[in-house]
């Protein structure tokens, strides 16, 4: 059951994301060192500072749930008896952070029985926050206030506004786009981090296919936002992307999309 999920909990998680974002921006404003993990992905003190803030804040919330963070995989012992846990990427888009292009975000998701039922995504450079929870809906909050989110509908014959990764191109991805362009008009745009999901959720893009590696924490928070805005994230076999099996931290290939007349058999 998710009746314990309410706006107060969502607001508390959103504030943690903002606090983590403030710590990230303190590092962003000065010179910083870049280290590399065993998988050769970059790591900065901003990742670690954001993780500490989020982890400490989540532990203080009720109920107290396990936390799986990109920056503390070893500290996660599994979901609780109800299949619940927090899934966190303290700084999604570290490569974009290093390049100083602004396309990075703080991501906090609540997983229940494999489904992202609450999600917060915060873009600290622009101070824009997207948040959503089951039973509450999805909103964008910026300097102009709070606005409900709703995906747009794509109709047959319309141009696809397709988002792709800014820093992770792949031959498989390009081949998929080439196939789509054989039948439809496609407008391409490169966007970093989980912000691609949020763009679809707010109705400014249509689709984001990912034919390359991502981890559970890269997608879960923005997936929750997109779900509550009327969109979906599906695997290439047509099933929903899920987060129940934490023994495998990598996602399969997926497509994030809004509403519309989509013949997935073509893809």
Can you offer a commentary on this structure?
The protein is α+β, with helices and mostly antiparallel strands and 267 residues long. The chain folds into two domains: 7-148; 160-266, no CATH class. Helices cover 28% and strands 29% of the residues. It has six helices and 16 strands. The chain has helices at residues 7-28, 45-59, 94-99, 171-181, 195-201, 216-228; strands spanning 35-36, 42-43, 67-69, 84-92, 105-112, 115-123, 128-133, 137-142, 145-148, 153-154, 160-165, 186-191, 207-210, 232-235, 254-257, 259-260. Strand 5 and strand 6 form a beta hairpin. Helix 1 runs antiparallel to helix 2 and helix 5 (195-201) packs parallel to helix 6 (216-228). It catalyses: adenosine 3',5'-bisphosphate + H2O = AMP + phosphate.
Write a brief caption for the model.
The protein has helices at 7-28, 45-59, 94-99, 171-181, 195-201, 216-228; strands spanning 35-36, 42-43, 67-69, 84-92, 105-112, 115-123, 128-133, 137-142, 145-148, 153-154, 160-165, 186-191, 207-210, 232-235, 254-257, 259-260.
Question: Top keywords for this entry?
Answer:
about 270 residues; alpha+beta; seven-stranded mixed sheet; 6 helices; globular; metal-binding; membrane; Inositol_monophosphatase-like; cell inner membrane
Helix/strand/pairing category: alpha+beta
Which residue ranges are poorly predicted, with pLDDT under 50 across at least 5 consecutive positions?
none
Listing every helix as H and every strand as E from the N terminus to the C terminus, the arrangement reads: HEEHEEHEEEEEEEHEHEHEEE
Assign an overall shape.
globular
Distance between the termini: 35 Å
Largest sheet: 7 strands, mixed
Radius of gyration: 18 Å
Query: How many separate structural domains?
Result: 2
Helix content: 25-40%
Number of helices: 6
Beta-strand portion reads 25-35%
Strand order within the widest beta sheet: 3-4-5-6-7-8-9
Number of strands: 16
Give the integer mean of the pLDDT values.
Answer: 92
Protein name: 3'(2'),5'-bisphosphate nucleotidase CysQ
Binding site for Mg(2+) 1: 70, 89, 91-92, 218
Membrane topology: Peripheral membrane protein
GO molecular function, one term: magnesium ion binding
């Amino acid at each position: 059951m998710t009746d314990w999920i309410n706006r107060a909990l969502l607001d508390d998680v959103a504030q943690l994301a903002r606090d983590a974002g403030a710590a990230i921006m303190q590092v962003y404003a000065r010179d910083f060192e870049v280290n590399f993990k065993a998988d050769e992905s970059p790591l900065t003190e901003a990742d670690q500072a954001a993780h500490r803030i989020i982890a400490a804040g989540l532990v203080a919330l009720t109920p107290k749930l396990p936390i799986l963070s990109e920056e503390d995989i070893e500290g996660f012992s599994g979901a609780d008896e109800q299949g619940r846990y927090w899934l966190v990427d303290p700084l999604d888009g570290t490569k974009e952070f290093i390049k100083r292009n602004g396309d990075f975000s703080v991501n906090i998701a609540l997983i229940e029985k494999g489904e992202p039922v609450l999600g917060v995504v915060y873009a600290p450079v622009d101070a824009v926050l997207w948040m959503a929870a089951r039973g509450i809906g999805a909103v964008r909050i910026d300097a102009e206030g709070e606005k409900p989110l709703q995906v747009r509908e794509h109709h047959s014959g319309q141009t696809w506004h397709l988002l792709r990764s800014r820093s992770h191109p792949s031959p498989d991805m390009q081949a998929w786009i080439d196939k789509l362009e054989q039948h439809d008009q496609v407008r391409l745009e490169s966007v970093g981090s989980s912000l691609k999901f949020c763009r679809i959720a707010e109705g400014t893009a249509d689709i984001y296919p990912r034919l390359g590696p991502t981890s559970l924490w890269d997608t879960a928070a923005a997936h929750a936002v997109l779900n509550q805005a009327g969109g979906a994230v599906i695997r290439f076999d047509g099933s929903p992307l899920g987060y129940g099996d934490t023994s495998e931290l990598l996602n399969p290939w997926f497509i994030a999309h809004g509403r519309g007349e989509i013949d997935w058999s073509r893809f």
